[in-house]
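Hi Prof. W.,

I finally got the Valine dehydrogenase prediction working! I wasn't sure whether to trim anything, so I left the full sequence exactly as given:
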Amino acid sequence: MPSRTLETTLDHEGFLVRQGRRSGLPVIIAIHSTRLGPAVGGMRIARYDSPADALVDCLRLSRGMTYKAAAVRNGTGGGKTVVPLLPGGPQRLDGQLREALLLDVAELVHDLNGAYYVAPDVGTSSADIQLMRRRTPYVGGYSATADGLGATTFGTAAGVEHAMNATAAHLWGTPQLRGRDVVVIGFGGVGHELTKRLLAQGAHVRATDIDPKRRSAVETSGAQWAELDGAYTLQTDILAPCALGGAFTSELVGSLRCRAIVGSANNQLAHDTVAQDLTQARITWAPDFVANAGGVMYASGLELHQLTPAQSLQRLASIEEATARILEDSANEATTSLAVANRLAENVLTAARAPHPNGNTPSTT
Ligand code: NAD
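And this is what came out:
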């Protein structure tokens, strides 16, 4: 994982760093904000070059969760857990060590008394969260669809589809994706489900993954395999980054041949300034933290707000509305979609901070 500088302000409610008492592994939990509701965010197990990189990533990701939830008015705040796999330490967590770690994290989360709900993320699954649920009720994303897909994966893909529909309407006057060409990069849980949804709409999909073994899954889905080398610069209507973040640099933007970027990866832009590069290149970018909000929306709908699957799915329409508004305001104001999306989230957060007319703190849910 590349080294990152702390681009965000240190405006978190708090964070903790603990050594798991069973696993001995370092665990970082950051709570950025509980202003709009309990902090919700995934548990990431990933390789980092240094503990500092892991801490910075956890702080950034937890802040991103606050903005994501605020932008789509999900009634939750932002938090994150990172378990760094560091040089010299274990590089895979399986069997007893994994179970020990999951119980360690569950215990730490439980001690936070519901201020933070832990959910799946890169390196963890809904099965892991189910195991943690034995230890604490403060978990999210443990539900699955009738065919066994994790609720967050399902919701994220469905939300990206909504963001794509809004982007298509903005660019081509119709939300329909029939006949549109889409390149999906990263054929994991979200990439696969998104591909199925796009094919069902009649889009033409090419997909790729760093893992060549994913080729057969791509072809079985009905999409066409694309080689990863050069995939970002393929000529296409929409590029859908569904692997890891940080892929879009100023340099890459100069070589892109797509009209739009809409995907699930978190922190897609290597730096915020890349948003300006995209605007100048006339490439429409659906801000990642809005486009990929469907997972937390769908799962928290089911698990926190006790909605039915159909009602939870319906909530995801707000991703389409928010994306449409962001792209429209961005075009009208000649500013980046990132700036507009940040402003949208900040307005929601500021409104929640405003003193309530009767002098009480506003409700947090
Ligand atoms: P996943 O681990 O199931 O899939 C990621 C896929 O990307 C894997 O198949 C992996 O081999 C591939 N990959 C990794 N590095 C790559 C690279 N450099 N180039 C091409 N492919 C690469 O993860 P997922 O759940 O499908 O999530 C995908 C992205 O969406 C992640 O960035 C994740 O943070 C983000 N996201 C996921 C959710 C969710 O609920 N699942 C929610 C919000 C955001």
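Residues 29 and 140 are 15 Å apart (CA to CA). Does that look reasonable to you?

Thanks,
D.
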